[in-house]
Model the fold of this input.
Amino acid sequence: MRLSTSLTESTIVCLPGAVPWPSVLRDLIGRLGVDDPAAVGSAIAQRETAGSTLIAPGLAIPHARVADLPRLAAALAVCPTGLTHPSGAPVQVCLLFVSPKQQTREHLAFLAGVSALFQTEGLVDALARCATPADVLARLREAERARAA
Amino acid sequence: MTLPVPTKKTARNVVLVTTAMLSFISVWKAAAVVLCDLASTVYYIGGIAEQAIGKAAPWFILGVMLFSYAIRALYMESCSLFVRGGVYRVVKQAESALFGNRLGGLTAKLSVSALMFDYVLTGPISAVSAGLYLVGLINTLTPMAHLPWVLPARLFATLLAVAVTLYFWRQNIKGVPESSDKALKIMVVITVMGVLLIGWSAVTLWVRGFQWPPLVPVFGAEAWGWLARYQGRIAPWGLLGLTMAFGHTLLAMSGEESLAQVYRELEAPKIHNLKKTGFIVFLYSLLLTSLVSFFAVMIIPDSVRLSHYSNNLISGLTMYLVGPYPLRLAFQAFAVFAGFLILSGAVNTSIIGSNGVLARVGEDGILPDWLRRPHPRFGTSYRLINLAVGLQLVTLLLCRGDVYLLGEAYAFGVIWSFVFKSMAVIVLRVYDTSPREYRVPGNLRLGRREIPLGLIMIFLILFWTAGVNLLTKRIATIYGSLFTLVFFLVFTVSEQINRRKAGHVVSRHAEGLTEHGHLDPVNLNVISTLTPQACRLTKARRIVVAVRDPGNLAHLKRALREMDPDEADVVVMSARVGTGYQLEGDLTTPTADEEVLFTQIIAVAEKAGCSVVPLMVPSNDPFYAMARVAYDVGADTLVVGKSGKCPPEIQMEQVAVAWGAVRATDSRPLKVRILWDGSEYQEDVA
Done:
């Protein structure tokens, strides 16, 4: 599954300046359109306790597997000045996603796919500089096309 | 759990770990290696034994070959206790059980010193015998070609023996797998020769009729040894007389001890394969050695047998078979060719054996550590091989081609090492009641106690024979004792020096970790680009097993147990995790922890009988390093143990992230298995 197909302009937020980390997560969870945002928030917090989801410099992917979810849902925040992760690391791109508990293989494939995509040199910086969600989507699609070529 | 701030993930130059032993051989190759030593005696045992005990020799050779079945059982039980189940290990364990550390390994050192004496003699006696067979053939052929000269037999045999020894020295420096391949080819040739010889001899006896050799031994003057003055009072058919005769033919069994050496190299399932190997060896040597000895006495006329053919009895046998002379001569040439091959193979086996024994005692710190360093290119313990071959060359020069002298000296070490070993296995039956995969049969249960009658019988026969041999085989007793004493002193002095210099410090981390309680020396070779070729991976599938904690290799054991070694190569990788400068510098020197880990990996692989390729990968992210190795070697499966820091689900996610990072543009899937406590969490990551 391509990341760009999991996102829409409404699930992407471009933050002009630093926002507290919990607020970012709340905002992104709100954009997922899930029935029980509180349960998702709790699952994500629990997952973060078990192990950090900072996977590359400037990139965090808070996520969780949730029961009774029809399909994988994702939301993305970008911030040129960097958000402050609880670990103290600056985060320019925060991709939050949740996937159905029973779909382990798809969950892992999505993780691997995101990881592979962000091997694209300069993608984190490029996304962070985007001013609008449309720009973000365009950049992502461009990177995906380049990788597929 | 919070990880440090992530930096760009790296896994720089991979370090390939090479060691003296990580390749395994099949049942047939193992049997061939043992038989190259054991069955090669057929070429000289008849002549030597008949000189000592007369025409009754074949009956006693048959007795020795039948008794070798019991020795096979003894070795199987000791190997089921220890992968490196040679005499040193077993005797030392028994000594510890009985006396603690009070004797300081005295009995183990003595028994292994004695065994070394025979290993040093096996090469020369085989190589000289090969030379004598060849020179016998040449001297038969030259008059037919109207050539006036006759080759000096012993000089020619000595020179040839030196050449053969040097050839196999080089082969062993290059590595065991190549040598066992050769042993198998040699045994194919010798089988063809043996079948022809036995068949043709049977036809000869059918055509000419025959008489069985006499049962009663007639001892030669030298065979009485220090009992010469009691000749009139010792009945040849009494217990002492029979034991003397048995002792003089015991060298027919020399080579049986190679079973312990090949066990370490035997592929999985090890004990099952050792049973097969032992049976093949027993049956083969029983048929070949016994039958040929009988046929030689029954077919070659008494008038020429010892006077013309004592050093090349099989050549004599071929010349007295029925059939046209040119055909018999051609068969003699083939028999000599086959003999040359198997006797040369025995030289090879003796080098492998002595190297194995020295390596084992070296591991215990009773040889200087520098002797144990692996060859920088081949990974073999080349300095030990040099030592063993050096001693063999000295022996060759001292004996000057006299095969009877070598035969008289022979079997001292074998019989005494068997005595020590049987005694040790009995002791361990009492002190180590842990389950064994194999036990010598003949156990009598009395209530809650078990009396190992079979083992006790074996020990008594061996001990009695060894005692009698001490008195009757003077050359063996004098030179064997001297050699044993010298080696014993070398071991003891080396041990003291090592202790004083603390040159053989066993890491405290190693204590209690390894079955054999030592560190295996390894070479670390940096390879800039990791490819299957660089790691010599040749099989259809590749499995990467990630390890970290030497005390927790259960997942490696299970992976090796469940895999098909013919189908897949196994790469065992560990990450040297660090940042910045920690990943720079000398990568060719293992840390203390890495030495323990590599030793454990080798021990697990040996026990499973599966080859593994150990790798060490400097990296700032262990998951990235695992994925990088799996990707670069083209693995379809990654096996990891359960982390103590996070649940398996999170581990799986971390692997998925790392796999995505390394697979970049392709979508190759990777099966990831997380194993712990009999449980498994498995997923395919695409």
Q: What stands out?
A: Chain A touches chain B through 28 residues (CB under 8 Å). Chain A has one domain: 3-148. The longest strand of chain A covers residues 73-84.
